[in-house]
Amino acid sequence: MSVKKLICPLCLAEEVERIKFTTPQGKDLVKSFVDKISNERERKKLLVLQKIQASDTIFIYHCLRCNNFEVWNTELKKSLVKLSLIDIVKPPEKKQGVKAKFKISNEHKEIIGGIAISTGIAIAACYALYYSLYFLSMEGFLDFPFETTLFEETVHSIVFISVAVYIVAVIFFSHGILTLIDKKMRLQEFTMKLHQFMYGQHLYYLEFNSKYEKKTFGASLKRATYGSTLILGIAILILEEFLVIPDLKPFFMTATYATIISLAASMPFIIILLDISPLLTKEVNLYYFDKKDRIVKNVGSWLEDALHFFAIVDIILTFIVLIDSQMTPSWFLFIAGFVMFIFVFFLIFTIMFNKKYHTRLKEKYIEYLKGTYNLPVRKASIFLQHYYCRNCGQEVDVVQQDRCQKCNMLVHKCMICGDVVDTRHIVGKTVVGIDVPDAFGKITDLIDKMESKMGAGPGKEFPSIQCPSCQKLAHLDEFIAWLKLRGTCPVCKAKLNFFDLF
User: Fold this and answer.
1) Strand pairing partners for 420?
2) Which of 151, 300, 386, 493 is deepest in the core (most CB within 10 A)?
């Protein structure tokens, strides 16, 4: 196996192996990638290369750190296949025998265990609710006619029937919501669209390596606590006035029924838009770059953190009000039962999501963003960029300056990200008002060795393109993604499409 230290264009690691395609090592590596590729077009290319007698000038470049995979014809200097980590999914599970079909997997065991724990909590919640209603009726706060003997005889059967119906309903509801998300992936755009509305227009891009999925039972408990806290924050905010104001206490049960019905009706939207969408957006490493402040932040984190903060603050304030209200213990028992019921719902939903849907939905969301908006792939961190004037060689602070202080030569910047664009690599219909420097000058060659770009190595600058309306420059992949998202030039606001550029 021929191994040579090269620089990976994605993660900049020097852990790239170079293998001849026709060698046994090369064939084994290609075979291992074919079954894992989600990009159907690149998969077909590899299958064709496998079947034909490949030339000895075809080599595989494989990064051991980020799994970037490229096939090149070194004689023609042409890329045949190019894959990154976000094009690769886990291989499908092998078919099992008849005996193995009856074996319960670890995922199903954890789901069954989670449902069993949720059932126990639901039984305790149901007893708390029924006994609180019974005590409140005895104290004269409610008009429910409870007979002591009849209640003690029937409460146990009512509790177990109620819990069984509730658990089954939650399982079917959770499966339906997750199936809807799986089929309607565009619903997950909510976080990105809301971020775009709240924070203005920025460059959105994907980081080459998606975040690690937290799918353990402990992570499910934590996520269920977050979801139930969000719902409880909304519910208690509505009901607290009926608990602390004496004149409104007679209407408490009516307000409770109205709140429960409203939350049940809006629950699908709350789960899809405020629970799953921020989480998946955060995990696929969707970032935005603020050109003005030179900051990079995750798009999904802001909404999830804001909602969590709102829910926690609201519950703390509510507890303070409840303590000062001098309510009887029966009311606190009722609230405890309501809280446990909500927690059971989110625990079952979260366990089903983590064990059966999490990975697939994340991978489908990455493919959806790539296919719909052609989002560029970049490094999440901002590297220190050194730029030297191609006319005189003077170093220029490209963040603060637009021209060289020594020779006054204009520094061409991307109108989207603000980084320097290489005017020797402009594509498109026409190039207007741009002086293309000599690509083989001594100063240019020296500068190429010293410059660095975010997500690329020296001499591998991204191609640029010129807006046909205002002649401003931008990186090609960023400009195409911008048009896909907004349909206009970021500077002159002219309406453009792909065919206007080429």
Assistant:
1) 413
2) 300
CA distance 249 to 280: 42
How far apart are the C-alpha atoms of 53 and 23, rounded to whole Å? Answer: 12
Q: Contact at 8 Å (CB) between 67 and 88?
A: yes
Kindly list the domain boundaries of the chain, sorted by start residue: 16-87, 106-378, 383-502
Cα-trace Rg, the chain: 30
Model confidence pLDDT, tens digit, residues 29-40: 777 777 677 667
Among candidates 264, 71, 252, 288, which has minimal Cα distance to 169? 264
Residue 487 falls in which region: left (phi positive, over 0), alpha (psi -120 to 50) or beta:
left
Strand partners, 476: none
Are 38 and 366 in contact, with CB atoms under 8 Å apart?
no
pLDDT at 456: 47
pLDDT range class, residue 173, cuts 50, 70, 90: very high
pLDDT digits (tens, 9 = 90+) for 368-420: 888 888 888 777 666 556 677 767 777 777 777 778 888 887 888 888 877 78
Give the pLDDT mean for 298-302: 85
Task: Give the chain's length.
Answer: 502
Q: Is 241 helix (H, G, I), strand (E, B) or coil?
A: helix
Mean pLDDT of 188-204: 86
Tokens of 16: 């790239």
Rounded Cα distance, 212 and 376, in Å: 21
3-state secondary structure of 378: strand
DSSP notation for 482-502: HHHHHSB-TTT--B--GGGT-
Closest CA to 192 of 202, 182, 184, 183: 202
Model confidence pLDDT, tens digit, residues 316-342: 776 776 676 666 777 778 878 888 888
* Per-residue confidence (pLDDT) for residue 502, from 0 to 100: 67
Query: Which positions ≥6 away from 279 have C-beta within 8 Å?
Result: 223, 300, 304
Give residue-wise pLDDT tens across range 197-241.
Answer: 888 778 888 887 666 677 788 888 888 887 887 777 777 666 666
Instruction: Return the H-helix or E-strand segment holding 38.
Output: none
Residue with tokens 């023609």: 76
Please give the Cα distance from 33 to 90 (Å, whole number): 10
Check whether 66 has a pLDDT greater than 80.
no
pLDDT of residue 123: 92
* Residue whose entry in the numeric block shows the structure tokens 């829910």: 311
The DSSP bridge pattern shows strands 426-427 and 464-466 to be parallel
Structure tokens, 117: 């724990």
Q: Collect all residues with Cβ–Cβ distance below 8 Å to 162 and sequence separation of at least 6.
A: 126
**Short-list 301, 278, 297, CA closest to 362:** 278
CA end-to-end span of the chain, whole Å?
Answer: 42
